[in-house]
Amino acid sequence: MEIKEIFNLARVPSILMLGVVYVAYVLIGGVVFWKLEGDLGKKDISLLLLNKKSLLTTYTCLNQEGLEAVAQVVQDASKVGLSLKGNFTTDGFWKFTSSAVFAATVVTTIGYGNMSPSSTAGQIFCVFFALFGIPLNLVVLNRVGKYMLVIERNISDFLEGKTGRKTCTRFSVHLVSYLSGAVLFFVVPMIVFQMHEGWTYSQAIYYCFITLSTIGFGDFVADSNPDNVYPDWYSVLMASWIFFGLAWLALLINHSIDILERLNTHFKQRWGAQAQDKEPDNAEGDNPDTQVEEEDELKKTPVTQ
Predict the structure, then answer these.
(1) Among 68, 146, 170, 238, which has the minimal tally of Cβ within 10 Å of its Cβ?
(2) Global pTM value
(3) Which of 177, 171, 161 is nearest to 251 (CA)?
(4) Which residues of the chain fall short of a pLDDT of 70?
């Protein structure tokens, strides 16, 4: 086997072109974020420095060391989910319900970053928990997504048999599936988060997308404000929304792969038919060398023992 066949060098140009497009896409995104957020970030820094100066001027007994100590207390309290606005204490982040939601964010690779294990045993357990949980999560979501896709196809086939319109029926079923998922996993959670978290609708829909796409910035995290009192069902709703929302996303991915595979098969058949039409039907028949070889093969008689 030659080197070209081993490394499949014929595909290198297409891979390089795809890599160039990928890098260009990322760099363009970086430029857009830089222009949109860069000036705002500078204004935020200037405002924070002004507030710091005003704080030190107002509370003359507080020096730089005291301010750093207060800031450290606030940061530590934020990490464990405690509120400093009142004289009451809470259970912090590590309640059973919050811990279950954290476990879900680990195996789904969302990783908000607002809470993390601090003990050595917890960190080691998190490593092994994620090591086995992430593949298990991918398998489960893939199976659920394929199951939902099968149900969608069965509904399409049933309606096709009733109506006799294949294209229109499939398009309608896919459209209803997409709209239902968008309402169930984006619009309804947006309203719930706006009511219980106090976010704007744009912040709520932003959080829904960042969560279900497993980006998980952590700038907005539901069920984590220590100043809010959440109902008991809120954490259960959060975990269920994350799981079934990711399953719906897996359905979209499987459906997209199905569409791409069908398009690939269609274009292969179309290009193959065009290539066969261009080739002469009797290309081998017009070659005298081929004809001589065929005559020699016919003249040979099989040798039997």
Answers:
(1) 68
(2) 0.69
(3) 177
(4) 1-12, 41, 78-93, 275-305
